[in-house]
Design a protein that fits this description.
Layout (H helix, E strand, L loop, with lengths): L2 E4 L5 E4 L1 H7 L5 H9 L29 H10 L3 H6 L5 H11 L4 H28 L3 H12 L1 H13 L13 H30 L3 E2 L2 H29 L8 H33 L1 H13 L4 H6 L5 H33 L3 H13 L1 H12 L3 H29 L10 H18 L3 E2 L1 H20 L18 H5 L8
Antiparallel strand pairs: 1-2, 3-4
């Protein structure tokens, strides 16, 4: 991978990539100059002829679909952790089969599909990374992050589609609290659990790791902005629901909260588009320079470059297979959430804040931790903060907007407990990112905070409809509400 050339003073200078390729080439200087002008060399590090429009690092040297290579490369995955996760693939057909063979066994169906979601999401992450290698750096990272959020989008859409707002309906299922908790849970899983493991894993191999302010400052600023926007509907509802000076019905107040949530979703959606334009168009050179510098610090880069790679067609095939599996598992999971929450006593806060985000973010977390382990903290931060920003500014607002189109009362009226936890998590994370350095102690502290949140969410009861922090009006009287058993579905 590495070679040496001499500068004007005769000192040895390290060359990599295209420079090494051209330095070792026997072609005339005119031909080498022509190649430099066109950016991409004719052959990449493995001697494969580079297809037009494909980045040299992602060139596979093959075309079309080769089943043997496809299975072998996919099984190898991106890292040892991802390769171990592929051992769970037998759960995929088992989960689908049990769903139809034993539809009454809700716990088994939920457990199998929960586990099967992990290797399916891992394949999305791997195929996304392989596809990203074939594209320019910044666009590749953004695309990889977006594909990593596909699992979350699918789960949100399935939950929303299964939601029935009318309490009088026979098939009444109120999944809105789970969706709201899952939006915040996804953010917490990224900024506390995943970022914590990144800091901890990287800190085990070196005293400190440094990352560029171009990524950390923009990311933490956007997180604070998103957190502020997401909390406004909940703050509005909480302020007015307990006020004795406001003469308003619960139904009208819930309608106002819904309107505010929809406007907030549109504004956050526009903010996400502006952020994407900022990264890809006006300031892409800054991010390109940061990520290219990070690649040079990768201790395993020479091994990654030599690995066999998927073709473009195989990347698309892998994504189709993985997204299909994820969609099936999401449907089967959602079908059994009612039983798990209602009959087994699992709160909707724990289901949304902890269980759902853990499985939907598994692939992204493995990728980010592996990058931190290889001393690529800017790449790790780009994935962690990018995924968090996508959830806060795109996935969350998207489910509100889609619910609007489906005439479903999907709002952003979060529980006060969830809202406070989110704001505190954003503040703590921003404080750790401020100095541009990380170590294993900071990582451990973030993980400990996440564990505390998980324990609190597990013991947090489901709210009575109409109580502060919930948009659903209560039909129960005071005496009935006092003796009403707290539960998710009524």
């Amino acid at each position: 991978m590495f070679g040496k050339r001499k500068d004007k003073a005769g000192a040895a200078v390290q060359t990599t990539g295209p420079d090494l390729e051209l330095a070792n080439s026997h072609e005339p200087k005119e031909a080498q100059t022509h190649q430099r002008k066109h950016h991409h060399p004719m052959y990449n590090h493995n001697g494969h002829k580079v297809t037009r429009g494909i980045h040299p690092d992602g060139e596979s040297g093959r075309k079309g679909i080769h089943p043997h290579h496809f299975l072998r490369i996919s099984a190898r995955s991106t890292s040892k952790l991802s390769m171990i996760v592929n051992v769970l693939w037998p759960f995929v057909p088992a989960a689908i089969a049990v769903r139809y063979a034993r539809p009454e066994d809700h716990v088994l169906i939920f457990a199998l599909n929960y586990i099967a979601m992990v290797p399916s999401a891992n394949l999305i992450g791997f195929a996304g990374q392989e596809l990203a290698r074939k594209l320019p750096k910044v666009f590749g990272v953004l695309l990889e992050t977006f594909l990593g959020g596909i699992v979350e989008i699918v789960l949100f859409m399935v939950l929303l589609r299964k939601n029935v707002d009318d309490p009088a309906a026979e098939n009444y299922n109120n999944f809105v609290p789970v969706i709201r908790a899952a939006i915040l849970g996804s953010i917490l899983a990224n900024v506390l659990l995943c970022l914590g493991f990144c800091f901890f894993a990287g800190g085990l191999r070196r005293d400190e790791q440094e990352f560029d302010p171009a990524i950390s400052e923009v990311g933490s600023g956007l997180l604070l902005t998103a957190g502020f926007g997401l909390m406004i509907p909940a703050a509005f509802f909480t302020s007015l629901s307990g006020s004795t000076s406001i003469d308003d019905t619960p139904e009208h107040l819930a309608s106002q909260v819904l309107d505010i949530s929809r406007v907030t979703a549109v504004v956050l959606f526009v903010a996400f588009l502006l952020y994407t334009w900022f990264q890809m168009r006006t300031h892409h050179s800054i991010y390109d320079a940061v990520l290219e510098k990070d690649e040079a610090k990768d201790h395993d880069r020479h091994k990654d470059l030599k690995k066999a790679k998927l073709t473009l067609t195989e990347c698309i095939l892998a994504l189709v297979i993985a997204i299909t599996c994820v969609s099936l598992h999401a449907v089967f999971l959602v079908e059994n959430i009612e039983y798990i929450v209602h009959e087994k006593g699992i709160s909707d806060s724990f289901m949304g804040l902890i269980l759902v985000p853990l499985v939907e973010k598994a692939a992204e977390h493995l990728t980010a931790v592996d990058e931190a382990w290889d001393n690529q903290m800017n790449f790790a931060l780009a994935h962690v903060l990018g995924a968090t920003i996508q959830t806060a500014l795109f996935n969350g607002p998207l489910v509100v907007i889609v619910g609007w189109g489906l005439h479903k009362a999907m709002d952003l009226n979060f529980e006060i407990f969830n809202a406070v936890v989110l704001i505190l998590a954003v503040i703590v994370t921003g404080n750790f990112l401020r100095d541009g350095k990380s170590n294993y102690l900071e990582g451990a502290l973030l993980i400990f905070i996440y564990i505390i949140v998980a324990v609190a969410a597990f013991n947090y009861p489901n709210p009575v409809a109409g109580a502060a922090g919930t948009a659903e009006p209560s039909a129960a009287t005071g005496a009935e509400a006092g003796g009403h058993k707290l539960r998710f579905l009524r």
